[in-house]
Specification:
It is built from 5 helices and 15 strands. By secondary structure, it is of the alpha/beta class.
Length: 345
């Protein structure tokens, strides 16, 4: 399944049915009077979050969603049928934006959450509603209200507890594959990862979700490389893991590149808790490890962890550092890997 995190959608709610102008025609009723029924209400356009979806790919093949109109009223005081609602099913973490792509109309963060994005029009009154002592045979009825037609954007921001940041080939996908059952593409060339990946990792009898996004390069905020369009997927994270390639010639410059792009991104990402780790230490000798770690700690003003996603050195320590930054209500109890005993009567 292809990954799609932004979709443009055209919606229209149903129009209300018109009221009826009608009079009773029974044989033995001399003054029948009005009996026109009301029109039915138009259908709503509703956005609902459902479980089991992690992409907006469905909206690539269908962009127009129109709710049904309400049925017109009829004689004998019969009300028209209401129009059928139409429901847009989206994954958890979807933002509903106005046509300007900036105004957030709804943030869908829980399974089963619903939001009425366009209400259907009310049905018009039939002539029965206009009967009075001075107007006993009204010949007027109200038309139904028109539906709402608008353009919206759906933007998916994956819900993860921790997010991976780094330059291309910093070892983010290798780390995700080493710590979870996720199988992202891994290769020795830049931009191997072209869309976000999620993985569930376990440490100390707890589990949390890590999001891996495509690497950033200098000028990503200006559209270079893949750009910063995927940074939205780590906005909801409680902590960020910044991986720095230990085999790089200038690890300090690599650090400043990522931090600069975070600061240029219009969000509070730069202020989120971060764990910084020097990766690929299996390719460094002891002197190189100490030199590069010291240089980074001097710039950061805090500790730098050492790890290798290939040899898995220091991986558990990094996971524990991430876990310490994640709120307890985000953590889940790890699933037991022991095979349950068979049931006996």
């Amino acid at each position: 399944m292809k990954f799609l995190d932004l979709a443009k959608v055209y919606i229209r709610s149903g129009a209300g049915g018109g009221g009826a102008v009608s009079f009773r025609r029974e044989k033995y009723i001399e003054y029948g009077g009005p009996d026109g029924g009301d029109g039915g209400r138009g259908g709503d356009v509703i956005v609902e979050t459902v479980d089991g979806l992690n992409t907006l790919i469905d909206f690539r093949y269908q962009q127009h969603f129109f709710a049904k109109n309400g049925q017109a009223g009829m004689g004998r005081q019969r009300t028209g049928k209401d129009g059928t609602d139409i429901v847009l099913k989206v994954p958890v973490g979807t933002e509903v934006l106005d046509e300007d792509e900036e105004t957030v109309l709804a943030d869908m963060t829980e399974v089963g959450q619903t939001f009425v994005i366009a209400q259907g029009g009310n049905g018009g009154w039939g002539n029965l509603h206009f009967k009075s002592a001075t107007n006993q045979a009204p010949r007027r009825a109200n038309p139904g209200q028109p539906g709402v037609e608008r353009t919206i954007w759906l933007r998916l921001k994956l819900i993860a507890d921790a997010g991976l940041l780094g330059l291309p080939n910093a070892g983010k996908s290798t780390f995700l594959a080493a710590t979870s059952n996720a199988r992202p593409k891994i290769a020795d060339y830049p931009f191997t990862t072209l869309h976000p990946n999620l993985g569930v990792v376990g440490v100390d009898n707890t589990e949390f979700v890590i999001a891996d996004i495509p690497g950033l390069i200098a000028g990503a905020s200006e559209g270079k490389g893949i750009g910063d369009r995927f940074l939205g997927h780590v906005e909801r994270c409680a902590v960020l893991l910044h991986l720095i390639d230990g085999t790089s010639d200038d690890v300090v410059a690599d650090y400043h590149t990522i931090i600069g792009e975070l600061e240029n991104y219009e969000s509070d990402l730069a202020g989120k808790p971060r764990v910084t780790a020097l990766n690929k230490i299996d390719a460094l000798d002891d002197d190189e490890r100490a030199e590069k770690k010291s240089a980074l700690e001097k710039v950061i003003g805090g500790p730098v962890m050492l790890m290798s996603g290939v040899s898995r050195d220091g991986v558990q320590e990094v996971l524990r550092a991430l876990r310490a930054q994640i709120d307890d209500d985000r953590l889940r109890e790890a699933k037991s890997k022991e095979t349950p005993e068979p049931w006996h009567p």
